[in-house]
Write a structure and sequence with these properties.
Layout lengths: L2 E6 L14 E2 L2 E2 H11 L3 E8 L2 H9 L3 E4 L11 H16 L4 E4 L9 H12 L5 E7 L9 E3 L5 E3 L16 E10 L1 H6 L8 E5 L11 H16 L2
Pfam families: CTP_transf_3 (PF02348)
InterPro entries: CMP-NeuNAc_synthase, Cytidylyl_trans, Nucleotide-diphossugar_trans
GO molecular function, one term: nucleotidyltransferase activity
Length: about 230
């Protein structure tokens, strides 16, 4: 089975400017996804899709093949699914057809090979259209989440459900950016990931940090340094 890894990294970032090339423990954030993918023998190619010249340079330096993303697919309001379709078409045109698409967002530097392999194996052993990674949520819409109305009036999200203890609430999970696995055919024939049947594999919180702002970045840096010290 031909499997290819894709990292989608825009130059723009509102929460943490230039985060994809920001140094995390001495290495560009982007490099963690590339390095992990290149260590895994199942990936025949590792691509980085970007419109940004600096990101493209870093990607090349760390051994990835750069896909030049059109500017219209790299705006703040651009649908990343369209970038997935663009990358799949580019990859097929450049390197021929393949069987399994794996997105490894740059914002999850703490993932390990086992996490990615687990998602790939789950996808391949199932009849699902895609497999994602999840982690236990620290907040539940069934117990401790509210909406604010007029004059900041509080309404319980699960209004109408008589759940009085956290332990009684249904378990919910956050989608992580550790890995997304699907097929090129599904991407090209559909308008979004959840247009199909999706399964998931759990990832521990310590490896599921998704960097969106400086707080996330500092947390990832602390966990990464701790892991290196204990290695």
């Amino acid at each position: 089975m031909k499997t290819r890894a894709f990292v989608f990294a825009r130059g723009g970032s509102k929460g943490l400017p230039r985060k994809n090339v920001k140094l995390l423990a001495g290495k560009p954030l982007l490099s963690y996804s590339i390095d992990l993918a290149r260590k895994m023998s199942m990936f025949e190619k590792v691509y980085v899709s970007t419109e940004d010249n600096e990101i493209a340079s870093v990607a090349s330096d760390f051994g990835a093949t750069v896909i030049k993303r059109p500017d219209e697919l790299a705006k703040d309001d651009s649908d990343e699914w369209l970038s997935w379709q663009h990358a799949v078409n580019w990859s097929i045109a450049a390197d021929g057809p393949f069987d399994r698409f794996v997105s490894l967002p740059a914002t999850s530097p703490l993932r390990n090979q086992h996490d990615v392999q687990l998602a790939c194996d789950k996808f391949s052993a199932s009849s699902f259209d895609a497999c994602i990674t999840v982690t236990p949520s620290s907040r539940s819409p069934f117990f401790n989440m509210v909406t604010l109305g007029v004059d900041s009036e509080v309404t319980i999200v699960s209004d109408g459900m008589d759940i009085r203890r956290r332990q009684d609430a249904p378990k919910v999970y956050d989608i992580t950016t550790v890995a997304y696995v699907t097929s090129p055919e599904f991407i090209l024939r559909n308008a979004g990931l959840f247009k199909g049947h999706v399964c998931a594999v759990p990832v521990p919180k310590a490896r599921a940090v998704d960097i969106d702002d400086m707080i996330d970045f500092k947390l990832a840096e602390t966990l990464l340094m701790d892991a290196q010290d204990n290695a």
